[in-house]
Structure formats: C-alpha cells, structure tokens
Amino acid sequence: MNKTVIEKITHIVGEKYIKSSTAQLLAYSYDATANFQRLPDLVISPGNAEEIAEVIKVCNEYKMSIIPRGSGTNLAAGTVPYDGGVVILFNRMDQILNFDKENLTITVQPGIISENLCTFVEAHGLFYPPDPSSMRISTIGGNVSENSGGLRGLKYGVTKDYVKGLQVVLPNGDILETGGKLAKDVAGYDLTSLFVGAEGTLGVVTAITLKLIPLPQYKMTSIAYFESLEDAARTVSSIIANKIIPVTLEFLDKKTISAVEQYMKIGLSTDVEAMLLLEQDGEMHQVEQDVKEMVRIAEENGALFTQIAKDAQEAEQIKTARRVALSALAKLKPTVILEDATVPRSELAKMVMRINDISEKYNVNIATFGHAGDGNLHPTCLTDLRDEEEMHRVEAAFAEIFEAALSLGGTITGEHGVGEMKAPYLEWKIGPIGINVMKNIKQTFDPNHIMNPGKVFAKETKKRVVVHGGN
Amino acid sequence: MNKTVIEKITHIVGEKYIKSSTAQLLAYSYDATANFQRLPDLVISPGNAEEIAEVIKVCNEYKMSIIPRGSGTNLAAGTVPYDGGVVILFNRMDQILNFDKENLTITVQPGIISENLCTFVEAHGLFYPPDPSSMRISTIGGNVSENSGGLRGLKYGVTKDYVKGLQVVLPNGDILETGGKLAKDVAGYDLTSLFVGAEGTLGVVTAITLKLIPLPQYKMTSIAYFESLEDAARTVSSIIANKIIPVTLEFLDKKTISAVEQYMKIGLSTDVEAMLLLEQDGEMHQVEQDVKEMVRIAEENGALFTQIAKDAQEAEQIKTARRVALSALAKLKPTVILEDATVPRSELAKMVMRINDISEKYNVNIATFGHAGDGNLHPTCLTDLRDEEEMHRVEAAFAEIFEAALSLGGTITGEHGVGEMKAPYLEWKIGPIGINVMKNIKQTFDPNHIMNPGKVFAKETKKRVVVHGGN
Hints:
Chains A, B: Keywords: FAD, Flavoprotein, Oxidoreductase. The structure is a homodimer. Chain A is about 35% helix and about 20% strand. Chain A is α+β, with helices and mostly antiparallel strands. The first copy, chain A, folds into 4 domains: about 5-90, Uridine Diphospho-n-acetylenolpyruvylglucosamine Reductase, domain 2 (2-Layer Sandwich), CATH 3.30.43; about 95-215, Uridine Diphospho-n-acetylenolpyruvylglucosamine Reductase, domain 3 (2-Layer Sandwich), CATH 3.30.465; about 220-330, 2-Layer Sandwich (Alpha-Beta Plaits); about 335-415, Alpha-Beta Plaits. A 7-stranded antiparallel sheet of chain A has the order 15-12-14-13-17-18-16, with helices on both faces. In chain A, strands 5-6-10-8-9 form a 5-stranded antiparallel sheet. In chain A, helix 8 (about 230-240) runs antiparallel to helix 13 (about 350-360) and helix 13 (about 350-360) runs antiparallel to helix 14 (about 390-405).
C-alpha cells in the first residue's frame, strides 16, 4: 500500500487506532466462511462518521478498497478482503445514541453487539426481534449490512423490517441521512432499504435507527419428533394453514439431532428422522392455545412424540439444542460449510429430500437444520478443506442444491448474504436484467468500485447445472 | 404528439384500447389533488407487461412521457400529466394471478381495486392490512407506487411492509422480476423496496406479490372525547408507553367532528376539542383487555367521556365517522386541500397546536384529523381555488406547516407521496445529499426522464420559511 495513503489515513484516525503488522492483518484476513482468506493492507478503528468520510475520500482518490467489518461472523465471505485495502472496524463506535421509549425507537452506532442491544431494550420492556444465531458476538452494523434473519423471523420478520433510518458515509465522502423515527414517511425513494443487505458495497453505515415493539409477556416452547421428513413438513404447512404464526418453527434432521445430543447430552431422541422446535410468544391465553393446537397438529400429522417444556429452563434447553446445531456439527469434521438455500415453506419436504439425494449423489456428508417456518434451510456439509477431491464434490453438490432451491421457487441465500462466495450464483436467482440493474446502482454510488469489492458481483457467473426431476 | 408514435402505440395496444379525443383526455388531466391539471396526449389500456414494454420502448425512442395511473385518487398530483405523454391505465390488468394459502401470498395485477383484494382474502380467513381511505376505488398498483398507509398502520405497517415481489417494466423496455413468495431472501439489493413508493418514476409495476397474514378473529372499538388537545395527545403517548399497540388510534379535532356530525348525524359530541377513535383486534381476551386499558388511560388523562362500541354496527358507525372526515369537510367549501405532514408520535400535541397557530396567522381555515398513533396528521384546508389571494395564504400556511413538522423531527409527507405538489419541498426533508443520491438513481434507470416526469424531483426547491418558536 502506498506510503502516502497510510500516512494520510493515520493522520485522520490516529496511530493508536491503526493496525498494520502482518500478525495483526492476519486476524482480519478471513471471516466465518471456510476457504476464503486474503490479507488487507490496513485495519483501522475510526471514532466517528466524519473520520470515516475523510478516510473514504483518501481511498477514493487512491482507488484503495474499503472493507467494513463487524465481528466477522459472515458465512458468505462478505468481510474477507479481495484486493488488499482498508478494513474498517467499529469497536470504537458501539454506543447507544438515543433511546426513545415514546416513539419506540433506538438509535445506535454500528459496533454495538446484537445481544447487548436486545438485553438493553428488554430491560425496558421492549423488544428487538431479529436474533441471528451469532447474536452473542455479531454487531448490529453487520446485521444491517447483511439483513440478518434468525429464529424469530417467521412471526417478526428480519432486520430490514426494523431499520427505520440510517446514517451512511457514501463512497464520495458525503454523509447521507435516511428515514428517521417516523412511523410513516414517503418523502422520496426508500434509500434505507437499499443499504440494508447491500453488504457494504454502497457505503459505510455509521448510525442506525431501529424500531422496537413491546416485549411479549409470555412464551411457551415444545418439541415434536417424527419418523419421516414428510410428516414434519406436513406439520409445518398445516400449522400455517390453521392460521397460527408461531415465533419459532425450527427443523433438525437426524444427523443434526445426533450431533447435538452427542455434544450436549440433553436427552434428545436420536432414533427419529426429524425434530421440530415450536415456540409461541404473546399474551398467555393465546400462547397456550396456539402451542396446544400446534402439538395437536403435529400428532395428527404422525408425530411419534411431543413435549411441551414445563418451565423456562426446559424451554431454554430445547432452544439451546437448536442454537448449538452448527457448533455441534463443527465438532465432527475439520471443515463445516453452512448454506442457507431457501424455498417457499410449502416446498420444505421436497427440498430436504432433494438435499439428501444430492448428498448421496456426490457422496458428501450433509446434515440439514433450519428455519422450517421460513423455508430457510441450513444444509451443512461436514468435510475437510485439505481433501481437494472431496471439496470439488462439495462445491458441485452445493451448486446443485442452489439449482434445486431455485427450481422450487426459492433463492440461493435466505439470510447469510451473497458475499464473495455466492456472487457467482447470484444471476441464477435474479437473472441478467436484475444483475444489470444492480450493477447500474453500484456504479452510480461507487464508480471506482472501492466499497467491499468482489462481493455480490462476480467476475463470472457459474455455468448452470442441469437438474433432473421437476418441481 | 407525433403521428408515427400514435400509430406505433395503436399497433401495439389495439385501437379499441386507446383514448385520444379531447373529451376523453380531459378525464385524465387531473387527479384528486386540487389545482393541478394538464392534458395527456394519449390514454391507453394495455393488456399485459409485454405490451407495456413495447410502448415504453417507443416512448423512449421518441422521448415521450409515460404516466402510470391507477384510479387517480392521488393527493399530491402524482398522476397529473406534466408535458403531455401517454397515460397508462390498468383497467384490463386487474386479475388475481396466484393465491397461495400455504405460503400466505397473493400475486395480483396492478389494476385490482384495493378493497376487492381485501374482501377476497378475508373470505379465506386471511388479511391484507393496508387500508388507505380511498381503498374502495384505489388500485393496489397505485397503493404500491405511493406506498400507501391507512388507518391500520400503527399495528400493521404500510404497503411496503407487505410487498414481497414485483414485476416492473423498466424505461428501457426490460421486464424485471424482484423478490418472490419467500419469507427470507437476501440475494442482492432490495430492488422491491426501491420501486415501492417511487411514484412511477423508475418503471411501470405490472405484477405484485403481497404477503398476507391470518385474519384477526375479533375486534373492539371505542371513542374518547377530550376538552383539550394535550389530554388527547397525552393519552396517545400513554397508551404506547403502556406497551399497547392498537390497530387504530385516530384523532379528530373540533372542526372535523362538527363537519362529520353535520354530514352524518350520528350523535357525535361537538362541544369538545378532540376525539380519539381506538380499536384493537386479535384474540378476544387480549382485545378486551387492551380496549379496557386504553379507555382507562384515556380517563386517567382527562377524557370527558368514553364509550366502547356495543356491537359491530356501532363500531362501524364510529369508524365511518373517521372515514368520511374528508368528504364531510369537502362539503363546507368549494376546495379542500388535504395534507399529510407527519411527526414522531411524541410530538403530536405540539404539531396540532402549531397547525392551529399557523391557521390563525395566515387567516386560513384548517381542520385537522389523522392517524394519531403514527403521528400522521391530515391538516385540511377549506378554501376556494377562485380566491387567488386566499390561495397564496394557503400555500404559505402549508409551507410553514411542513417547516413545523420538520422542526419536530417529522416529514413533509407520511403517506400521500411527493408527487408534483410536494416536489419543491422534498429537499427540506432529505437534504441536498439525499436529492443528489435520488437523482443519480433516477438517471441510471431513466436517462431520458420519460417516467412520470415532474414528480418527486422539482425544477427548483422552495425557499425555506423561517419559523419562530423551537421544538
């Protein structure tokens, strides 16, 4: 990296907040995605939006890349450097700027840890629902840039449903303010939504106003085991068809259940094909009615065994079983690749069976769990990066999984983002016209392509896989 | 209009579906906004997206304007021609394309009447919440392009919260598909949200996939009268502070109540300063609890008189009182100008008082009603277009009302859109950087500025008004 650039950036941010030794840079050369690693040139911790604006101006002048990074929990290589450049950290920008109980909003800096925000508002009887599995370490800024989902998405939606306003430093150094605390605002284009999920490719988010809702008073959790995937999937469809929208409706397949039980020893039944985790929250009377009805529906659809958690502790244990799924699977093999192919929920059973068929076809080990109510599955491949031959089969299997999801009316990514990893597949979902529109938008914001390059847009789209077997 | 253009368009759409006589064009020279009128060159009723794409290509070639138009209920001159051009009607594109009870979505053509869609899904136990006051005649396409609100926005949000996917004909004739039925999808930028509320300036929406939710089983309505605006506003804040989010929380001031009572003779108290209409829906037990609690809060905050509707008929009568507010006021004077300045709900009382002060200062007659829970007010000026001197005062008063809303952290338009009418004020809200970003987006989609010109972007921003008296 140009010495002048380093000097200019150091002058803006202060030497204390700059990392440039190889050992330091290494720590920011990868994220939670397997198989992607490249060194940045510099890692900085600016103190405010104005400093970021100055840094961006310098980077724009010298055509240096900017990689905004929260806690690096990204699963699509969205925060891995592409061609060196400056990683921006938000560890000094983690404050609550405004908490407005009357208007039910909170304005925060991007570096605040997601769970800390949730805990803070819950202490005031309020609720910020998006709960990505990484929430204990992920930042709200990262959640916004990836439009993160979570276990409560079915009832409460995802991050974008709660972002009401943003402050964004644009690639030209302008500081844009969008939206605000208002319940309704139609003054111009919805720029807020454009930045949510843009994966840092259009600007650097420096402040976020979020909508809050009243904290539900009561919740109740249950599980149901099934001897067939179809029974579990039919239960999911039937719950929705009965006009119940539970807060959580999660699915674990046999392999995932076994891995979790092996890891946690909490007494899960491991001789079943599928498990559903069902939770409702809200007013007590309604919650009890919904959970009983969901259990009845599960039994009607052939559940082998159902259980309503008798207290908060038991409920927490059941939910932890789901939350640790990835960690439990990660114990089994050196490399774990977690995907998030998503289908309309009516296609859930078909999709799980397709994944199993593809897993067999390519002789790769795939366990599947995920947000059944959202049709958002996490086929998780247990493999080993060092086994090059197997890695080729893994890649081919995932390409076919994306193709299968698309053929069922689904998408290549439900909640993880496109990043660098799925960029070559994006055109499969949105088509050449969609890609063209997105490229034009990117171009107008960031003509020098300094903002998180290599993400979302691929140099080349992957050749499509021919999939046999229709919808 | 160029004869060749007319011939080409006639060839695409068919002579039967073209209107071009002056009498016919006159009917499409205005919308529901007072004081805006200009003739189009042609009015067409295409049959599908492909025809629209062909028409747009011709218009792009000859630099002719396109004005997409639903039922013309727009209140910001969003559907009034600007420099002639082709008005596109959707009366032949009003079909339900797909109703998916398992995934809780419905895909429709833009021309379907909003209320017809609601009635259809409600017959299946499902619910599409956005309910603009014009829903009996407005189209879903218009609602999407304006991101319409309504009376149920506080609890259920606005149109954009339900749009999951779009088909849009772009100004270059490309047909773009965005989103879909999926509960979660983060494949690329959120193009869907960019078109919602874009007022037809970026493309022509030709199909819409909407999210549905289960129909609430029960609802309960009540009213509360107050002798002061502050008491009413404090009630609103206190309801939210007590963690109750009612479906409807509407406000009518003294002038509006009188006009409605005069119009409907339903026994409203006319010797009070303000009335709140409170409604909750959901599970019976919860609804009863919430409504009783809201009534208690109203009484605690000095309500003179409260009443819970004893049955559906009485509830309907109360709600009709709110729904007819505009029609009732319209009876009083030849011209009615309805605005939608919006503030954070905590600033409601201040805003109503500012409106009253401004009304006195300019000696204009303004009645105010609106969505109190959303901070979305409808100051409504009763005037006469033919009185030029008064119209100048009306314009000055509204400019000061916008300025007052902004100084309280609000916006110039909560749910009506910018259109041509409020375009000169947009920069007051989003600033020169916001305008610049929006202009760049417009430019990249529509370099020839054929899509609904004169809307959103003004030739010149109004000079700002100096407002005395702070927040």
